[in-house]
Amino acid sequence: MKKVLIAFMAVFTLAACAPEVGSEKWCAAMKEKPKGDWTANEASDYAKHCVFN
After folding, report:
1. Cβ–Cβ under 8 Å, residues 48 and 26
2. DSSP string of the chain?
3. For residues 50 and 42, what is the distance between their CA atoms, to the nearest angstrom?
4. I need a labelling partner for 4 at 20 to 30 A (CA). Which of 10, 15, 19, 28 fits?
């Protein structure tokens, strides 16, 4: 049980480190990421928040 709790906490801690979609940090990270690795949702969000903003 203790190992499950630690793993659960680790997942949420690491997930909290990702920048919010549409933030300046997120836009900068997406510029660095190869365009071939973008998902359709990422491309849509990038256009919405970083290009047409």
Report:
1. no
2. -HHHHHHHHHHHHHHTTSPPTTSHHHHHHHHHS-GGG--HHHHHHHIIIII--
3. 11
4. 19
Of 45, 40, 14, 13, nearest to 29 by C-alpha is 45
Residues in contact with 13: Cβ distance below 8 Å, sequence separation at least 6, in sequence order: none
Predicted TM-score (pTM) of the model is: 0.65
CA pair distance 53, 22, nearest whole angstrom: 9
Residues for the chain: how many in total? 53
pLDDT tens sequence across 4-41: 767 656 566 656 688 999 999 999 999 999 999 999 99
